[in-house]
Amino acid sequence: MRILVRGQRPPGPLVRPEKVYERIYALVKKIPPGKVATYGQIAGLTGRCTPRMVGYAMAALKGGQDVPWQRVINCRGMVSQRKKGSGALRQRNLLEAEGVRFDAAGRTDFGRFGWRGPHQIRKHRW
DNA sequence: TTGTTGACTCTGA
DNA sequence: CTCAGAGCCAACA
Q: If you compute the radius of gyration of chain A from its CA atoms, what whole number of angstroms results?
């Protein structure tokens, strides 16, 4: 029996990439202002998808799609650094404008700003 | 076709 | 607490 590890995809076929992106974007749109979700959280809610793919979907976003990409951060509560560009700084500024606070180490408090999910999410479970 | 590269996360040391 | 290694897989050259 295969052990399910967070950060890795559950067994079973992946849905088509386009569908995955659509699902991811639809989910991200549900995150209310002032709240943040993690890549892994979105991946888990999307199903059959990995956190990396969520990050890739965010990176593939083009302007004018009305997706609040800034509300997706990594599992450590920090804004993920980009390889290129200054997107991370912009993301942090947008979040702070929504009321999300970061400590001196650049981390936010999931207890206060973490999104609970569309209805009920099962934390630490796929 | 094959390599390489990420806006990730987990485990173990 | 930090750090490295492994696993993941779509996009790109």
A: 14
pTM score, whole prediction: 0.84
Question: How far is residue A67's CA from residue A8's CA, in Å, rounded to a whole number?
Answer: 25
Taking the CA of residue A50 and the C1' sugar atom of nucleotide B9, their distance in angstroms comes to 9
pLDDT values of chain A reduced to their tens digit, one per residue, 126 residues: 334 444 455 555 454 555 788 889 999 999 999 999 999 999 988 877 889 889 989 988 877 678 999 999 999 999 999 888 788 999 999 999 999 999 999 999 999 999 987 754 433 333
Judged by C1' against the alpha carbon of A59, the nearest nucleotide is B7
3-state secondary structure of A38: strand
* A36, β-bridge pairs: A114
